[in-house]
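Whiteboard transcription, Tuesday session. T.W. wrote the structure tokens on the left side:
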């Protein structure tokens, strides 16, 4: 009986994946990975053992956005919701066995970290996958799969030493100390650590104290954003406070090095100006560091950040944190997705011109960048 189920699922996965390859009309890496996603969903259906027809219908639902939804964000979010719903349902109905948890862990890691294929560093990702399995074994399958995946999702692959993070979590789970006490220690560390390390501390806390309920539901909701999993790993919750550029935003793209000044004319009757600003080559600057001034008002790291510090190659080594109000500008897809961390600064009652001055003590090569202005 089991052998016939294997044959059925293999045949269904092959046919559906081929159809997914030919039905894709859009060029994003997520659309091109549709056959891969279909295979992973079929694996979930097989491991669940129950309700095979529902899983097969869920696979077919992936074709709906691929054919009918032209808007990119809507289409990719639809893929995310369908895949996350399938994964969550499979976790809920599957037999509670170690084999099942390990399979779901592998499927989740592949979905969250192996798209886009062109950006995968295979040997590093294999180490992360083995680390996620180590966490599952250390937890003795007591943790829900989404929380195991949180560890894998947040693991930096640059620099290479950070590939040990999942194994570190596995060791922490095995320490014979009350988990609430260990979680409290990591909470204190997160308050004083730089942003990139604080993210890892929070993930350890989730792994230590996770229980079915609200936290589990939140994990599933975030899992639905796998088409932008890099944002979930490095830009959450900053993305929730991001603001889009207004329609009247005027691109400026001016940069000032140490001690340099720039001016922008302000139209008459303007009562406020919103500036979109960032820094370049500034990942080593800590929050609170003055990068420059606008009309005498200091511009600090924390209000702005290095525009690309959330790229996975730079994230862990960076001392920056997301701006209080970042620009809602997401680049790339999947595990490579990153939030353009320009900050939005409002200046009330400006003069006839705005004068920007970069701090005279900036490191060589670091620049204050004025990307756009909005006049009100």
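and on the right, the sequence the group agreed on:
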């Amino acid at each position: 009986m089991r052998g016939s189920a294997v044959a059925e699922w293999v045949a269904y996965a092959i046919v559906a994946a081929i159809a997914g390859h030919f039905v894709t009309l859009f060029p994003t890496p997520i659309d091109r990975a549709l056959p891969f996603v279909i295979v992973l969903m079929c694996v979930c259906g097989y491991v669940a053992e129950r309700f095979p027809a529902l899983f097969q219908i869920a696979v077919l639902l992936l074709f709906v956005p691929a054919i009918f939804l032209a808007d990119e964000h809507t289409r990719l979010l639809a893929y995310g919701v369908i895949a996350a719903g399938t994964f969550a349902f499979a976790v809920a109905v599957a037999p509670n066995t170690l084999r099942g948890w390990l399979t779901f862990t592998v499927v989740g890691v592949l979905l969250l970290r192996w798209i886009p294929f062109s950006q995968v560093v295979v040997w590093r990702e294999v180490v992360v996958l083995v680390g996620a399995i180590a966490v599952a074994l250390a937890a003795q399958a007591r943790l829900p799969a989404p929380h195991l995946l949180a560890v894998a999702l947040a693991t930096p692959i640059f620099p290479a030493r950070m590939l040990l993070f999942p194994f570190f979590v596995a060791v922490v789970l095995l320490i014979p100390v009350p988990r609430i006490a260990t979680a409290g220690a990591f909470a204190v560390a997160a308050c004083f650590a730089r942003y990139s390390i604080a993210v890892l501390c929070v993930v350890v806390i989730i792994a230590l104290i996770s229980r079915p309920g609200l936290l589990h539901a939140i994990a599933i909701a975030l899992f639905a954003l796998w088409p932008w999993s890099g944002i979930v790993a490095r830009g959450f919750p900053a993305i929730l406070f991001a603001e889009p550029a207004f329609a009247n935003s005027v691109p400026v793209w001016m940069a000032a090095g140490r001690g340099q000044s720039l001016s922008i004319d302000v139209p008459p009757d303007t009562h406020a100006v919103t500036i979109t600003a960032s820094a370049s080559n500034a990942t080593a600057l800590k929050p609170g560091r003055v990068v420059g001034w606008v009309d005498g008002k200091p511009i600090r790291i924390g209000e702005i950040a290095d525009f690309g510090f959330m790229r996975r190659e730079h994230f862990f080594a960076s001392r920056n944190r997301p701006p209080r109000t970042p620009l809602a500008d997401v680049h790339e897809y999947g595990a490579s997705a990153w939030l353009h961390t320009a900050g939005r600064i409002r200046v009330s009652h400006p003069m006839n011109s705005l004068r920007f001055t970069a701090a005279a003590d900036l490191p060589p090569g670091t620049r204050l960048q004025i990307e756009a202005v909005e006049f009100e």
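Someone added at the bottom: The longest strand covers residues 272-280.
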